[in-house]
Amino acid sequence: MTSDDPEDAFNLCDQRKRILNEDGHMLVVGGPGSGKTTIALLKARRRVLRRLDSEQKVLFLSFSNSAIRRILESAGRILTDDIAERIDIKTYHSFAWEILTSHGYLTSSRRRLKIIPAQDAAVRSAGLNKEEWLEEQDRLYVGEGLVTYDQFAPRAAELLGRSAVVRACFSGAYPLILVDEFQDTDEDQWALVQALSNQSEIIGLGDSEQRIYEWRFGVSETRLEDFAQALECARFDFANENNRSPATGIAGFARSLLSPGSEQDLPDEIVRQSFKPGRMSVQLHLAVRRAFREAKDRSEEDRPKVAVAARSKRLVRQVSDALAMNMTINGKVYKALAHDVLIDQHQILLAARVVANIISSTEASSSDRLAEALDRIADMLRSAANKTNIEASDRLRKWAERCRAGKVPSTKCVAAIADVMARLDKDGLTGSPTQDWVSVRRLLERADAAELNKVAELARYLRLLRRGSAIEQALIGLWVSQGNYRGAEAALEQAILQDQLVDAQRESATVSVMNMHQLKGREYDAVVLVEDQYNTFIAQDKTPPHADARRLLQVSLTRARHYVVVLSNEGEDTFDRLLG
Fold this sequence. Notes:
The structure is a single chain. By secondary structure, the protein is an alpha/beta fold. 51% of the residues lie in helices and 13% in strands. The chain has 24 helices and 16 strands. It has a 6-stranded parallel sheet, with helices on both faces. The chain has a 6-stranded parallel sheet with strand order 9-16-15-10-14-13, covered by helices on one side. α10 (187-196) links the parallel β6 (176-179) and β7 (201-206). α8 (149-162) packs parallel to α10 (187-196), α15 crosses α19 (433-446) and α18 (412-427) runs antiparallel to α19 (433-446). The radius of gyration is 26 Å and the shape is globular. The two termini are 47 Å apart.
């Protein structure tokens, strides 16, 4: 950069200059890579330098930490450290929680609020219909000071709407608020932002063609227009500009998917591969390796980032399992590929709680240990929220009550738990959290009870959630200070709660596996999209022209800077249906 002013590094068109020079609410729309984040950061920089009091900051709101990381990467090219300190980049969750922790007592009977972790909310809501669960959440919030993540935005919006003092407090702290991916905001998030618009300048960033969360309650296809009309703001359209992969045909082809009947040849940067039924694992290994090589050559990065994405959670797990295995192809051994996995967490975290309970309760009485383990397994089953699992959960809870009363039932499940605990007591714990955790998980895998086998199956994914380091350090601290893992459950809960609050999804490996919706807000050097005959990109969008599937594919393809591989089952290729 030849100038101290980062604005000089960009070729700013007239409308971008207007965004920087003018005041007031603004709506900036444009496709992937069109520069919405860049101009927003330049706007924030100007405000910090020219019109921000010493106690004020600029607020940049986004949906997830993945999007925040992308923003921070862009900020590194634009903001010096001293200016970056004056810009708060937060998720909706963390900002709403900031409002609730400071002023929630105004709408709750309790002075201090506590969060109900998402996995516990899943347990509490199981078996309740929508209206019943809303009533229960209201009761918990008002009467007990307990708040679910789903209540964060509506409760924060309520506070801002009812109290001019609270509005003035937060608008005074944040006179300029930048809102990313505004097309995906629901009614409560929109109400939160709108409440601050009387005194804060709001700049909304969005793209109606990246609207892939319509299934979420309260998300509207007219949200960008709602913003423009309600705030009577200036509108800036970056149209189809693309700076993420300008030298490739990825963006152009992806955009063509949004126009059924349009014809566009597949660019060199997108390749399609197929596999025969039952042979996905082989082709998947080859596809990921090909994507990595191509991304490395095209990006000139030593460790390019590759995303592997599928439509369903089931296929995401199958992809992860396949990549975790060594593979022999034509006599050549391909080693397992280290990767991160971003997957639905509720049952996994509740299964991890079972393991934490077992290693932490070694000093309790036999009947109490059994009762506590049964309760934890019951929670895990109940969170699945179907009739079969709820009935099984109720059954285990009754067994737990009998254990506490000293009348241990002679059931297969209870006997299996007792056997696991006896074997653990015989072998002893080592003080190495990882080794002890794996030992318990393996005992559960070999147990003669389906409920325990399920715990082991789910708990092994905790390794893939990338929380191991924080949890391991906490468990080491417990062992060093007291010679056992008493308190392991609390340590696990604290690590999980912190991650949920900021929606952290750390990706330390070169390859990351996720569902296609989780690609939103992320960028990779290469993307591998996978479908099979049971889990296609179209999913439930059965009616032509498959608008939802087209939008999802458009967003997924444009997450790649340099290269895309589309891997499909022979005869079940979504692209053939969309392009045919």
